[in-house]
Amino acid sequence: MTVRRLDPTRGGRTLLAATALGLLVLAIAASVGRTSAPSEPFRPRAARAIPHADVAPKPSRARAATTWAGGPTTASTGEVVTVYVSPSLAPELGTAPTWADFIVGLVHGPELSKLTAYIAPLDEIAEMCGDNALGCYGSNELASMGETEYGITAAEVVRHEYGHHIAWNRVNAPWSAVDWGPKNWASTANVCRRATDGTAYPGDEGDHYVLNPGEAWAETYRVLDEQRSGATGSGWSLIDPSFSPDAADLQAAERDVLQPWATATKATFKHRFTKKGKLVWSIPIATPLDGDLAISISLPKGGIQDVTLVDATSKARIATGLWASTTTKRIAMQVCGARALVLKVTQRGAYGRVVVSLAKP
Q1: Per-residue pLDDT at 64
Q2: 3-state SS track over 348-360
Q3: Among residues 189, 182, 183, 178, which one has the least CA distance to residue 337?
Q4: Rounded (5°) CA angle 7-169-175
Q5: Entry pTM
């Protein structure tokens, strides 16, 4: 299926006019009685675009709906989700309660409570999100068409956009999860190495949209939820096939939803060098996740031990410990695709205890 990208001339952080859309969302908020406006303009992200460039646009109303049915809605599970439905949408295509039930049925975490969803006919979505858009997302707000168009269902669009919502509420330091994908999936999909090699373009909603890992993550989430619910989607065509998820990608994505990464893992290792002992102390370091790696090596007074970090597979030297004080050496770097490292401390100078403290992603 040929995919047509949204018009990048619309500006904003992604493809759309963020300022104009922010004003629209403020109008929506006033019409439905929300107690506070968004803290920043609605900065949308693209969902599935109209799949054929030669499709005639549907006629637009004068403006998108400014009166909406719904609000904070208690779903059948007892969970509350904020859903607004355009009065222009045919009732058989869903109401606030039925869409609330659908959304709480998605695989989700506590980010659900932060979501505000808007469901409307396609022509109104185009006014909210941009020409040829089927939906968009920004800053805890989701908008989606409510009907099936061009062989794509509203459920697919909502799933994709909810994937962006998860990323918005996840951490992937030192990178942005909404652009790179959440930590576990981004590491499994090798986003850092691909970005370095020029085969992935985090945050690029323009010429390299199909190689944008933020969009690949949203599609991976869609596939994950479809598999869990037994649904059938329209396939994998929005994003480059190189990002098509395998079992490992889907497992990592599920961890990002249900058991998200939050902070670095810390560990301490101790060793004493003696005249009769080995001259090299090796510490294997598993690095299944990409991100910041910080190592501090405390040496005995008068010790000048060499400290090197090597790739466990290639044996190539990656980093060398540098002096931070008269008894401390440090290594600070980013793990980017290497999944097993070895820290080597080689005896030189005074003997005595060496303490290694590390923090890894």
Answers
A1: 59
A2: CECCEEEEEEEEE
A3: 189
A4: 75
A5: 0.84
